[in-house]
UniProtKB/TrEMBL annotation:
Highest taxon above the source species: Eukaryota
Organism: Rhodosorus marinus
GO biological process: iron-sulfur cluster assembly
Main localization of the protein described in the UniProt heading: mitochondrion
Domain called GCVT N-terminal: residue spans: 71-174
Key word Cell division present: no
The UniProt record lists the keyword Mitochondrion: yes
Species lineage: Eukaryota, Rhodophyta, Stylonematophyceae, Stylonematales, Stylonemataceae
UniProt name for this protein: GCVT N-terminal domain-containing protein
Signal peptide (UniProt feature, chain positions): 1-29
Length: 307
């Protein structure tokens, strides 16, 4: 798989992406048998290479997503329980091999949590959520539990979330994951797996271990915000799911029926007016070109195309 982010910025992504040259930063490789990271230059050019390593050289990578936690929900009523809570239709999520992007909203239709749901068995769901929000989500799930026959538990001490970009399947890694599936938000993010913490999978030599910062750069360049810091920032519980691109990443079902916050989400979708969205932008270091980039972006936002 080519990890060049420009390959994947294609329809159905409708937001505007303005490329002004290159984005320069520093990231770190994470050697499996080393206590220290080796610094390298990270460049995302239109072509060519520089520094010790370029993003284009990373054909297959793996990372442990330490910013994510897992909540386990089990019981005979688990499917109905989630169907009434989240933006996603959970009724046909495949066991073991499929994950779905989903949002938890408040009664005003504002995004509380962006999550990825997977299904180890018919009566069990795993909720992959921002580590900073795991306690809050657990409390909210228990609040809505009422008489539903489900058991809710924080599985963060038992399970961890991994990402394998550029790896064709879990079979190629010879691992036995709890769940493993293509990241539902973008093909560029590869496979997402939930693994037992006590077991470390054998990593092939041709799959490079990287820190979560590298993964975050790839994810950001594909216009995918994740976690409370990115999706909410200082405005907690004020962003709409469509403003965070959950409709673009397949995180909202518009024909599943009622769920908490559904009314405003459906109305926003059917009116076709989303006045603000998250989108990636790389700014050139030149002040003149950076100013021109801002002007072009503003012209686009003011135009009819932005809707």
């Amino acid at each position: 798989m080519n990890l060049n982010p420009l390959v994947w910025l294609q329809p159905p992504f409708r937001f505007f992406f303005f490329w002004t040259g290159f984005f320069f930063s520093k990231v770190f490789l994470e050697p499996e048998d080393s206590n220290s990271c080796c610094e390298l230059n990270f460049w995302i050019p239109m072509s060519g290479s520089c520094g010790r390593l370029c993003l284009h050289d990373l054909k297959q990578i793996w990372t442990i997503l330490r910013s994510r936690s897992v909540v386990r929900v089990k019981g005979p009523d688990v499917e109905k329980f989630f169907q009434n809570l989240v933006t996603q239709d959970v009724r046909d999520i495949g066991v073991l091999t499929e994950g779905r992007h989903a949002g938890f909203l408040n009664s005003r239709g504002r995004l509380l949590h962006d999550t990825i749901l997977s299904r180890p068995s018919e009566e069990e769901f795993l909720v992959d959520v921002d580590r900073a929000n795991v306690d809050r989500l657990t409390r909210q799930l228990n609040m809505y539990k009422l008489r539903a026959n489900v058991k809710i538990s924080d599985a963060s001490n038992e399970l961890s979330v991994w990402s394998f970009a550029g790896v064709p399947s879990a079979d190629a890694l010879q691992v036995n994951p709890v769940t493993a599936f293509p990241d539902p938000r973008s093909e560029a993010l590869g496979l997402r797996m939930v693994l037992e913490k006590k077991s470390r999978p054998p990593i092939p030599e041709n799959v490079t271990g990287v820190t979560e910062n590298v993964y975050k750069v790839i994810r950001t360049l594909n216009g995918i915000c994740e976690g409370s810091v990115e999706s909410q920032g200082d405005f907690r519980d004020e962003e709409l799911p469509l403003e965070c691109n959950l409709d673009v990443t397949g995180g909202v079902s518009f024909d599943k029926g009622c769920y908490i916050g559904q009314e405003l989400t459906a109305r926003t979708h059917h009116t076709g007016v989303v006045r603000k969205r998250f989108f990636p932008m790389a700014i050139d270091k030149s002040p003149d070109r950076a100013l021109r980039a801002a002007q072009v972006a503003q012209e686009y936002i003011d135009s009819d195309q932005s809707t």
